[in-house]
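Morning. Coffee machine broken again, so started the prediction first thing and wrote up yesterday's gels while waiting. Chain of 192 residues, entered below exactly as on the submission form.
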Amino acid sequence: MRLLTIGTQLTAAVQIAADRGASATHADRIDAAMAMLRSGTGADLVMVDIAIDIRDLVTRLDAECIHVPVVACGTRNDAPAAIAAIRAGAREYIPLPPDPQMIGAILAAVADDTCELVYRDEGIANRIVGRTVADVERDLILETLRHCLGNRTHAANLLGISVRTLRNKLTVYAADGVRVPPPNSGEVRGAA
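Came back before lunch.
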Protein backbone atom coordinates (compact mmCIF):
# COMPACT_ATOMS: atom_id res chain seq x y z
CA MET A 1 0.00 0.00 0.00
CA ARG A 2 1.28 3.46 -0.88
CA LEU A 3 0.94 5.71 2.14
CA LEU A 4 1.09 9.51 2.06
CA THR A 5 1.27 11.39 5.35
CA ILE A 6 0.70 15.09 5.83
CA GLY A 7 1.84 17.17 8.82
CA THR A 8 5.04 18.04 10.61
CA GLN A 9 4.24 15.74 13.54
CA LEU A 10 4.65 12.69 11.28
CA THR A 11 7.96 13.59 9.58
CA ALA A 12 10.29 11.48 11.76
CA ALA A 13 7.85 8.56 11.90
CA VAL A 14 7.55 8.39 8.10
CA GLN A 15 11.34 8.30 7.76
CA ILE A 16 11.44 5.41 10.23
CA ALA A 17 8.71 3.59 8.27
CA ALA A 18 10.54 4.20 4.96
CA ASP A 19 13.76 2.87 6.50
CA ARG A 20 11.83 -0.31 7.29
CA GLY A 21 10.94 -0.64 3.61
CA ALA A 22 7.44 0.88 3.71
CA SER A 23 6.11 2.63 0.64
CA ALA A 24 5.52 5.86 2.52
CA THR A 25 5.95 9.48 1.44
CA HIS A 26 5.51 12.64 3.40
CA ALA A 27 4.51 16.27 2.93
CA ASP A 28 4.48 18.93 5.63
CA ARG A 29 1.61 20.90 4.04
CA ILE A 30 -1.44 20.30 1.88
CA ASP A 31 0.07 22.19 -1.09
CA ALA A 32 3.08 19.88 -1.16
CA ALA A 33 0.89 16.80 -0.80
CA MET A 34 -1.35 17.89 -3.69
CA ALA A 35 1.73 18.50 -5.85
CA MET A 36 2.95 14.98 -5.07
CA LEU A 37 -0.42 13.48 -5.96
CA ARG A 38 -0.60 15.49 -9.21
CA SER A 39 2.92 14.37 -10.18
CA GLY A 40 1.82 10.75 -10.27
CA THR A 41 3.37 9.68 -6.97
CA GLY A 42 -0.08 8.44 -5.95
CA ALA A 43 -1.31 7.05 -2.67
CA ASP A 44 -3.72 4.37 -1.53
CA LEU A 45 -4.22 6.06 1.84
CA VAL A 46 -3.60 9.57 3.17
CA MET A 47 -2.93 9.95 6.88
CA VAL A 48 -3.25 13.55 8.05
CA ASP A 49 -2.11 15.15 11.27
CA ILE A 50 -5.20 16.42 13.09
CA ALA A 51 -3.68 19.91 13.16
CA ILE A 52 -4.00 20.14 9.35
CA ASP A 53 -7.16 21.65 7.81
CA ILE A 54 -8.81 18.40 6.74
CA ARG A 55 -11.82 20.08 5.13
CA ASP A 56 -9.45 22.03 2.85
CA LEU A 57 -7.61 18.82 1.91
CA VAL A 58 -10.82 16.89 1.17
CA THR A 59 -12.19 19.82 -0.87
CA ARG A 60 -8.99 20.00 -2.94
CA LEU A 61 -8.96 16.24 -3.52
CA ASP A 62 -12.59 16.33 -4.68
CA ALA A 63 -11.97 19.34 -6.94
CA GLU A 64 -9.17 17.48 -8.72
CA CYS A 65 -11.04 14.15 -8.78
CA ILE A 66 -8.39 12.44 -6.70
CA HIS A 67 -10.09 9.60 -4.90
CA VAL A 68 -8.10 8.42 -1.91
CA PRO A 69 -9.30 7.72 1.64
CA VAL A 70 -8.25 10.31 4.20
CA VAL A 71 -7.61 9.27 7.80
CA ALA A 72 -6.93 11.81 10.55
CA CYS A 73 -4.44 10.97 13.26
CA GLY A 74 -2.84 12.55 16.28
CA THR A 75 -0.96 11.82 19.46
CA ARG A 76 -3.39 13.58 21.78
CA ASN A 77 -6.65 12.02 22.92
CA ASP A 78 -8.75 14.97 21.70
CA ALA A 79 -12.28 13.70 21.08
CA PRO A 80 -13.71 17.04 19.83
CA ALA A 81 -10.87 17.38 17.31
CA ALA A 82 -11.39 13.79 16.15
CA ILE A 83 -15.11 14.39 15.66
CA ALA A 84 -14.39 17.63 13.79
CA ALA A 85 -11.93 15.78 11.52
CA ILE A 86 -14.50 13.14 10.63
CA ARG A 87 -17.15 15.77 10.01
CA ALA A 88 -14.65 17.57 7.77
CA GLY A 89 -14.35 14.49 5.58
CA ALA A 90 -11.86 12.11 7.21
CA ARG A 91 -13.04 8.52 7.13
CA GLU A 92 -11.61 7.74 10.55
CA TYR A 93 -9.50 9.10 13.38
CA ILE A 94 -6.58 7.01 14.61
CA PRO A 95 -4.93 7.93 17.91
CA LEU A 96 -1.17 7.45 17.71
CA PRO A 97 1.38 6.88 20.46
CA PRO A 98 3.62 9.86 21.26
CA ASP A 99 6.86 8.04 20.35
CA PRO A 100 8.03 8.48 16.70
CA GLN A 101 9.56 4.98 16.74
CA MET A 102 6.20 3.43 17.58
CA ILE A 103 4.39 5.60 15.02
CA GLY A 104 6.96 4.53 12.42
CA ALA A 105 6.27 0.89 13.21
CA ILE A 106 2.53 1.48 12.85
CA LEU A 107 2.99 3.28 9.52
CA ALA A 108 5.27 0.49 8.27
CA ALA A 109 2.61 -2.09 9.19
CA VAL A 110 -0.12 -0.05 7.46
CA ALA A 111 1.95 0.23 4.28
CA ASP A 112 2.97 -3.45 4.31
CA ASP A 113 0.80 -5.32 1.83
CA THR A 114 1.68 -8.66 3.38
CA CYS A 115 0.56 -7.64 6.88
CA GLU A 116 -2.99 -8.64 7.77
CA LEU A 117 -4.29 -5.76 9.88
CA VAL A 118 -7.92 -6.79 9.54
CA TYR A 119 -9.29 -10.13 10.63
CA ARG A 120 -11.15 -11.75 7.78
CA ASP A 121 -13.88 -14.24 8.59
CA GLU A 122 -13.75 -16.69 5.68
CA GLY A 123 -16.95 -18.36 6.90
CA ILE A 124 -19.07 -15.25 6.39
CA ALA A 125 -19.69 -16.06 2.74
CA ASN A 126 -20.99 -19.47 3.74
CA ARG A 127 -23.46 -17.84 6.13
CA ILE A 128 -24.90 -15.32 3.66
CA VAL A 129 -24.55 -16.75 0.16
CA GLY A 130 -27.85 -18.22 -1.03
CA ARG A 131 -29.95 -16.24 1.46
CA THR A 132 -32.19 -13.32 0.62
CA VAL A 133 -31.17 -9.78 1.55
CA ALA A 134 -34.27 -9.57 3.75
CA ASP A 135 -33.19 -12.65 5.73
CA VAL A 136 -29.64 -11.35 6.20
CA GLU A 137 -31.00 -7.92 7.19
CA ARG A 138 -33.40 -9.47 9.71
CA ASP A 139 -30.62 -11.52 11.33
CA LEU A 140 -28.33 -8.48 11.46
CA ILE A 141 -31.02 -6.34 13.08
CA LEU A 142 -31.98 -8.97 15.65
CA GLU A 143 -28.37 -9.79 16.54
CA THR A 144 -27.58 -6.08 16.94
CA LEU A 145 -30.65 -5.69 19.14
CA ARG A 146 -29.55 -8.63 21.30
CA HIS A 147 -26.08 -7.08 21.55
CA CYS A 148 -27.73 -3.85 22.77
CA LEU A 149 -29.83 -5.78 25.31
CA GLY A 150 -33.03 -4.66 23.60
CA ASN A 151 -32.16 -0.95 23.56
CA ARG A 152 -33.83 0.24 20.34
CA THR A 153 -32.13 3.63 20.22
CA HIS A 154 -28.64 2.19 20.61
CA ALA A 155 -29.32 -0.59 18.09
CA ALA A 156 -30.70 1.89 15.53
CA ASN A 157 -27.60 4.07 15.94
CA LEU A 158 -25.28 1.10 15.40
CA LEU A 159 -27.26 0.03 12.34
CA GLY A 160 -27.40 3.55 10.90
CA ILE A 161 -31.19 3.61 10.68
CA SER A 162 -33.86 5.60 12.49
CA VAL A 163 -35.55 4.24 15.60
CA ARG A 164 -38.88 4.44 13.77
CA THR A 165 -37.55 2.26 10.93
CA LEU A 166 -36.16 -0.23 13.44
CA ARG A 167 -39.47 -0.39 15.32
CA ASN A 168 -41.42 -0.87 12.09
CA LYS A 169 -39.16 -3.75 11.06
CA LEU A 170 -39.46 -5.35 14.51
CA THR A 171 -43.25 -5.13 14.32
CA VAL A 172 -43.19 -6.99 11.00
CA TYR A 173 -40.79 -9.61 12.38
CA ALA A 174 -42.98 -10.21 15.45
CA ALA A 175 -46.09 -10.49 13.22
CA ASP A 176 -44.23 -13.15 11.19
CA GLY A 177 -43.62 -15.14 14.39
CA VAL A 178 -39.96 -14.18 14.83
CA ARG A 179 -38.71 -13.84 18.41
CA VAL A 180 -37.87 -10.19 19.11
CA PRO A 181 -35.96 -9.02 22.22
CA PRO A 182 -38.17 -6.75 24.35
CA PRO A 183 -36.96 -3.20 25.08
CA ASN A 184 -34.03 -2.93 27.53
CA SER A 185 -34.11 -6.45 28.87
CA GLY A 186 -31.84 -8.66 26.82
CA GLU A 187 -34.57 -11.33 26.89
CA VAL A 188 -36.43 -12.70 23.88
CA ARG A 189 -40.20 -12.64 23.58
CA GLY A 190 -42.59 -13.70 20.86
CA ALA A 191 -42.91 -17.03 19.08
CA ALA A 192 -41.30 -20.10 20.60
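The chain has two domains: 3-111, 124-175. Going to sketch it on the whiteboard this afternoon.
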